[in-house]
Amino acid sequence: MNPIEMLSLLVQDAFWAGLAALGFAILFNTPPKYLLVCTSVGAFSHALRFLILQFGVPIEFATLGAAVVVGFIAMYLARRLHSPATIFAVVGVIPMIPGSFAYRTMLSVVSIASAAPDQTAALLTEASTNAIKTGLILAALGIGIAAPPLLFQREKPVV
Fold this sequence. Notes:
single chain; mainly alpha
């Protein structure tokens, strides 16, 4: 793939992820003055994951890397804009939620009921693989947005 096609895909990916982040920011009643920032964080996070995936990194680790970056960005924006970091962190990782893997898991589980006996093992393997992948991606999102504040945010001492 040439660089122009890669850049085009990256921009498209960022646009649609930003649109999803904007929708969830509106759904979560984010203050209007932060909507553009939340949209940008969501677009950037998904585009970063897309970029990391292009280097052959598995989706679980790419998601973890992008979520950690979102955690740092949320901490920075919270200090800069005097608002909770949760606003930017949660909306920023929403586009990376593994909906397709969860859907494929449920589709395989439902298909087991009507499958021939010789196909049951393959469907069960597919369902298990997708369920584990979904769980690992969700764990990566949670760890990614929680780790930066836990590691680098210092509580004020009580005097």
